[in-house]
Amino acid sequence: MEDNQEEVLEIFTQDGVLITTAPATYIHYLNNVGTLLIVEYPNSNLTRCIEWKPLDLTIDSDVQDQEWTVVSTVERRRTYSGSLPVDVNRSKHLKINMNDIKSFRVSHKNQKLTFRDGKGDNVCSFIFQHGNCDGLIAVLKGILKTIVSRRDKHVYCILDDIKNPERQQLDKSFAELNLFQEQSSAYVWKFVKNFPNRPYEATMEAFSKITDIVYRGPEHRLMDSEVHNILHRSLEAIENNTTTHSHDEYELIAHVPRLPALKEYPRGRPLSFEQWKALQDSEGQVEDVEAVKLVIFRGGISSNVRKEVWKYLLDYYRWKCSHAEQQNLIKQRNEEYFIMKLQWRSMTKIQEDNFTDYRERKSLIEKDVNRTDRTLDYFAGDNNPNLQVLYDILMTYAMYNFDLGYVQGMSDLLSPILYLMNNEVEAFWCFVGFMNKVSSNFDMDQAGMKEQLQHLHTLTAFYDPEFANYLYKHDSANMFFCFRWLLVWFKRELSQQDVMRLWEVLWTDLPCQNFHLLICVAILDTEKNILMENNYGFTEILKHINDLSGNIDISTVISKAEGMYNQIVDAEHLTDAVRLIIGLPILGNTSIVDSKEASPDISDLTTNGDTDEVSYENALTHSFL
Amino acid sequence: MAKTYDYLFKLLLIGDSGVGKTCVLFRFSEDAFNTTFISTIGEDTAGQERFRTITTAYYRGAMGIMLVYDITNEKSFENIKNWIRNIEENASSDVEKMLLGNKCELEDKRQVSKERGEQLAVEYGIKFIETSAKASIRVEEAFFTLARDIKANTEKKLVCIWIIFVFLINLYIIVNHCE
């Protein structure tokens, strides 16, 4: 087929088709727009090929900027250099023999078409920029025998070519046996399909048809590839698992730009009493708030001044207030607290009996107070008075913010604050400040948590596409295994001392408000090899992550997260979606904006790779209701 | 990490907050009881309703589910119906289920009679057992019963897979023989 003069029959042609995945030989075409053809070579035993030729020699810069694609064999990726071969003739066009294609998948509202080989790996994918691929699918259905995959309605499996000699032989042998009315392989396949629904009936029905057949002693030969295929497919269908194997037959290539190297950001010394006093003027006002925050971000706060500084960080005290104004404020807050406390304290029995909402949240608080940090001396033992204070503050908070009320996890957030303040009113107002920062974690519809998990996935996919792809293939792209980390800001993972250090660092909002997500990315980066080497699935990942509790070195993690933040900020291919998360202004010049990326929709969680997208989305709908 | 076991089952314990899910699990796994258990978050499973969208993620792949209520808490029993509906929507249909009335040592505070528990279990066609994680009553029995049922269920499936395999091998032999 090297001969350009060979007779060619173009069955289908479409312009404006962007190529996003291709075999290694055609790496230079990636992210270019061109013409897609389905071509038949009548002189070469009716070979059909998928062909694609570029539009012209210039690279459309818009297209080049397009978001990279996550592929399964990232370790084999190559970076697209941008050079194009000068000589573009037919023999250099992308050409893939149709016989190598075993299925194709339609996605992105019928705008994307991906061809896959017998192992389910992507051979090439195309985005139809003008319209959709419906026309092509109609043509393919016309020339190939296809069935819709039972696992994914967007996947069309190509049944083996009827002209295949092996297939003919097999059909013949079955015909001679006269076992089944239908085509043999189709029969077996049908049997396999029925099996999960009615195993006994399907099996017995099939058995009944072969009981009459007498066969002589078994001859062990190499398994017929057709039967092998059927067996393979059947086992796949029974397990109903999504299996994707990486292999060496094709290299899946994508444009995956590299991040700058990870630099070290050693931790600094904690804000000392002397530093703190030096930063206040004689009136007690803090002029350079950013300087204070920077020191805290770099090294946290010394324990001898932590109690006072937390009141500022949690908006109980005002940075710009004089001592006198502060005293006035404290007095007001004090009164306000006791008014609210009195409101629930004065609830009569009858009132309570007639107030289900109140009763339920009271019972929830009681339950949780009894199991909050009881291993710490501060809350240990029966009838510990600090438990009563914990309870009173949570009850008062429920009156302060009745819409939110009490949600599990809030007692965890209060515990270190109360421990440090050791004062009911101060702890309450500091807790209010903390809750103001994280109240979306406790939304009734969990929208705040979902958004963070989604952002965490976007960051992970940007920082480490290979790992994101792994998670995606193991039903874990929803990042649910980080739920506890985010809900209570690592409270359950760290010691009381460590969690206090982490929280004060995060409260500075430096270098960005979502720095806690980078903490997650940093821990995951440390653990990803274990997860991937052991081929952990959703349950094992969850267990592994939960078991990290007590084994996280928070200083190392913070400094690594800072390094990663800077790597991301300096990345040349930084996208608006990531900019938004890490608090950088949006440039709005990302071309071919992925609709998923633009909308803060749940589907954003989808990685850029499109393998098993539908099963992923199903899983997500599943999980998110 | 070499794991030595004959069977590995993924079980979930679900039910309202504070019915004793973690304590039941702890009694089974450590044969101990601790009154000051921490509330469970992000593992199977947080009981509070608003976490339900997250906890349902854990249903996937579960082979057995223990539905736990507190016999001294009427509400937790009433909510079992909601949990079951939730399972039906999110877990695979062949998951083994079992109803557990926990805290049965607190007879004087009982709000849900044993008969009502039995009746509900019959209604859903699942097994029922009253347990006490604190007094160590029938917790092991509950887990082993559930595990046995799952094992029986799994073996039934394995037999089917074996049959189909034998069938296909025979078919292959026939095909080759007649070529």
TrEMBL record, chain A:
InterPro entries: Rab-GAP-TBC_dom (IPR000195), Rab-GAP_TBC_sf (IPR035969). Interacts with non-phosphorylated form of RAB8A; phosphorylation of RAB8A at 'Thr-72' disrupts this interaction. Interacts with ARMC12. SUPFAM superfamilies: Ypt/Rab-GAP domain of gyp1p (SSF47923). Residues 300-510 form the Rab-GAP TBC domain. Acts as a GTPase activating protein for RAB7A. Does not act on RAB4, RAB5 or RAB6. It is found in: Cytoplasm. PROSITE patterns: TBC_RABGAP. It comes from Pyrocoelia pectoralis. Keywords: Acetylation, Cytoplasm, GTPase activation, Phosphoprotein. PANTHER family: LD27216P, TBC1 DOMAIN FAMILY MEMBER GTPASE-ACTIVATING PROTEIN. GO terms for cellular component: cytoplasm. Its main location: cytoplasm. Gene3D superfamilies: putative rabgap domain of human tbc1 domain family member 14 like domains (1.10.8.270), Ypt/Rab-GAP domain of gyp1p, domain 3 (1.10.472.80). It holds the Pfam family RabGAP-TBC. It comes from the Eukaryota. GO terms for molecular function: GTPase activator activity. This is TBC1 domain family member 15.
UniProtKB/TrEMBL annotation, chain B:
PROSITE patterns: RAB, RAS. It holds the Pfam family Roc. InterPro entries: P-loop_NTPase, Small_GTP-bd, Small_GTPase, Small_GTPase_Rab. It comes from the Eukaryota. The chain crosses the membrane at residues 158-175. SMART domains: RAB (SM00175), RAS (SM00173), RHO (SM00174). GO terms for molecular function: GTP binding; GTPase activity. Keywords: GTP-binding, Lipoprotein, Membrane, Nucleotide-binding, Prenylation, Transmembrane, Transmembrane helix. The keyword Membrane applies. Belongs to the small GTPase superfamily. Rab family. This is Uncharacterized protein.
